[in-house]
Amino acid sequence: MRALTNKYVDILLPNNFFLICEVIGDAFYYIIQYIGPEKEASQFKYKFVRESGAEEITVCNAVSGYCMDVKKMYNMGKCVELFCDTMERFLDGEKNLQFHIALFKNKEAHEILLL
């Protein structure tokens, strides 16, 4: 049985951001949504980073508004989407997936939140 199956996590982050991680079929999905006006959501982007030795996965994407349907965002490719086989190479000894999240304002180069 796969280590990554039927997992769903949602976390409220500081500053009105909402993180969702989910495994559907053979894919790992990750998205950050902004809780507030849609026009404010478009001001932010996020970076997903997972490192393991010499290997690294980095994906950047725009933050979506909280009113956007998550499944539609998955289907439109407006999320982080990685195959479970790839993600399994990055699990730690206890089968946990550890990664870093960085949120940025689109027009600024500085980082506003790093987990």
Question: Can you walk through the features of this model?
Answer:
The protein has 115 residues and is mainly beta. The chain has one domain (8-114): Apoptosis, Tumor Necrosis Factor Receptor Associated Protein 2, Chain A (Sandwich). It has three helices and nine strands; from the N terminus they run E-E-E-H-E-E-E-H-E-H-E-E. The chain has helices at residues 38-41, 70-76, 84-88; strands at residues 8-13, 17-24, 27-34, 44-52, 55-62, 64-65, 80-83, 100-105, 111-114. A hairpin with a 5-residue loop joins strand 8 (100-105) and strand 9 (111-114). The longest helix is centred in the middle third of the chain and has 7 residues, at 70-76. Mean pLDDT is 80; it is low at 1-5.
Give a nutshell description of this structure:
The chain is mainly beta.
Dominant shape: globular
Count of structural domains: 1
State the distance separating the first and last CA atoms. 30 Å
Quantity of strands, as a count: 9
CATH superfamily membership? Apoptosis, Tumor Necrosis Factor Receptor Associated Protein 2, Chain A
Please tally the helical runs, counting DSSP H or I stretches of 4 or more residues.
3
What is the CATH level 1 assignment?
Mainly Beta
Protein structure class: mainly beta
Low-confidence stretches: 1-5
Give me the secondary-structure topology.
Blueprint: E1 8-13, E2 17-24, E3 27-34, H1 38-41, E4 44-52, E5 55-62, E6 64-65, H2 70-76, E7 80-83, H3 84-88, E8 100-105, E9 111-114
Parallel strand pairs: 3-6
Antiparallel strand pairs: 1-2, 2-3, 3-7, 4-5, 4-8, 8-9
